């Protein structure tokens, strides 16, 4: 089983699926980021350089990097457009230690849409963004897209694996953990940002009463798929019952809850976005849509869901659950399977 968190929580969050699969199949996440690009450009216009003259731009939660290219290009182009082509920019990508950083660096180096250009430098940090990652007062611009719904670790058991099934005390435990993590994220960013710097965040969000993330139909089908795998002997019941996705989709009230005034961090902008299902809009009904949804869910949630399994068994179960069961189930139906919601935010370091 995975290690437990020092604060007594369950399994640590794991990185997204590597080997180029996240880059290839995370188009819905890329579509989400587009809603915040203008806000990022606006923030980049006034991004303050450090004492040595370089503007440090940090990408919190980069995965394999492809979905970071457009945001980082927007930031770099704006910075150099406002401050001159000679303005040096350091782009720092962060993710968990087991992230596929090799794919990230290849993507930045080789992708034709890369932000690379003269005066722009790339670095990476392999640690959780729930801690301070850079020296105090050194970051001129922060960006995080479809990442902060992940918790540091599962805070407790669930009657199922998807967090919106939580009710009663289970829900209270998870809600407290999510609030603690969001406050920790903002505290760390407030320490890193220079006065006048901004942090732009776009994340999956939830509706209220009852809490809905927009992915419930897919997750209910995955639960049925796990039952099928138990029935066929691919999994045992204990393995299935131990599975949990350590994520929490926050409501607007939860996003706004932390008091950051004493940190010198103010919420300048908050927008709720009804994203719906970008994959259905792209593909419509049919086999291509079914394969795209199953692949997107596998690369995003497969590793965290199946992290308790030995790697070779994880690959076998992942193929059976996502590539086979989920794909066939979606292909047999008509209409979209998602109703995603987004929260788009901009924070400013005031002093």
Structure description:
The protein is of the alpha/beta class and 351 residues long. It has one domain (21-349): Rossmann fold (3-Layer(aba) Sandwich). It has helices spanning 21-25, 27-33, 37-44, 66-83, 101-110, 168-192, 216-231, 237-242, 252-256, 278-283, 287-305, 311-331, and strands spanning 55-60, 89-95, 120-126, 139-145, 193-204, 265-276, 340-349. Strands 3-2-1-4-5-7-6 form a seven-stranded mixed sheet. The model is unreliable at 1-6 (pLDDT under 50).
CATH architecture: 3-Layer(aba) Sandwich
Instruction: Please give the count of helices.
Output: 12
Output the CATH topology. Rossmann fold
Q: Main beta sheet: strand number and arrangement? A: 7 strands, mixed
- Class based on secondary structure composition and strand pairing: alpha/beta
> What gross morphology would you assign?
globular
**Mean pLDDT level:** 91
Topology:
Blueprint: H1 21-25, H2 27-33, H3 37-44, E1 55-60, H4 66-83, E2 89-95, H5 101-110, E3 120-126, E4 139-145, H6 168-192, E5 193-204, H7 216-231, H8 237-242, H9 252-256, E6 265-276, H10 278-283, H11 287-305, H12 311-331, E7 340-349
Parallel strand pairs: 1-2, 1-4, 2-3, 4-5
Antiparallel strand pairs: 5-7, 6-7
Helix pairs in contact: 3-4, 7-12, 11-12
Please supply descriptive tags for the structure shown above.
351 residues; alpha/beta; Rossmann fold; 7-stranded mixed sheet; 7 strands; 42% helix; disordered N terminus
Question: Could you give a quick summary of the protein structure above?
Answer:
This protein is α/β, with parallel strands linked by helices and 351 residues long.
């Amino acid at each position: 089983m995975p290690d437990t968190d020092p604060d007594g929580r369950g399994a640590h969050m794991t990185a997204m699926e590597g080997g180029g699969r996240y880059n290839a199949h995370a188009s819905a996440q890329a579509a989400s980021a587009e809603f915040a690009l203008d806000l990022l450009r606006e923030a980049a216009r006034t991004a303050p350089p450090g004492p040595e003259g370089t503007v440090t731009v940090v990408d919190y939660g980069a995965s394999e990097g492809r979905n970071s290219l457009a945001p980082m290009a927007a930031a770099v182009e704006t910075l150099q457009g406002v401050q001159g082509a000679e303005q040096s920019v350091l782009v720092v990508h962060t993710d968990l230690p087991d992230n596929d950083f090799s794919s990230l660096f290849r993507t930045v180096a080789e992708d034709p849409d890369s932000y690379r250009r003269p005066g722009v430098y790339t670095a990476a940090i392999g640690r959780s963004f729930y801690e301070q990652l850079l020296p105090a007062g050194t970051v001129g611009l922060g960006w995080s897209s479809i990442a902060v719904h992940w918790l540091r670790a599962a805070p407790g058991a669930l009657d199922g694996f998807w967090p919106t099934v939580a009710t009663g005390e289970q829900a209270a435990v998870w809600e407290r953990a999510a609030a603690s993590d969001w406050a920790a994220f903002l505290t760390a960013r407030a320490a890193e940002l220079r006065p006048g710097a901004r942090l732009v965040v776009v994340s999956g969000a939830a509706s209220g009463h009852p809490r809905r993330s927009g992915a419930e139909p897919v997750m209910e089908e995955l639960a049925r798929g796990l039952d099928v795998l138990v029935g066929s002997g691919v999994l045992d019941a204990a393995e299935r019952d131990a599975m949990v996705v350590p994520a929490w989709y926050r409501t607007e009230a939860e996003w706004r809850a932390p008091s950051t005034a004493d940190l010198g961090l103010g919420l300048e902008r908050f927008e709720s976005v009804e994203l719906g299902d970008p994959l259905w809009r792209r593909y419509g009904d049919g086999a291509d849509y079914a394969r795209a949804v199953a692949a997107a869910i596998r690369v995003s949630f497969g590793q965290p869901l199946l992290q308790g399994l030995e790697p070779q068994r994880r690959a076998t179960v992942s193929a059976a659950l996502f590539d086979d069961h989920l794909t066939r189930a979606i292909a047999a139906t008509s209409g979209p399977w998602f109703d995603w919601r987004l929260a788009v935010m901009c924070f400013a370091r005031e002093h």
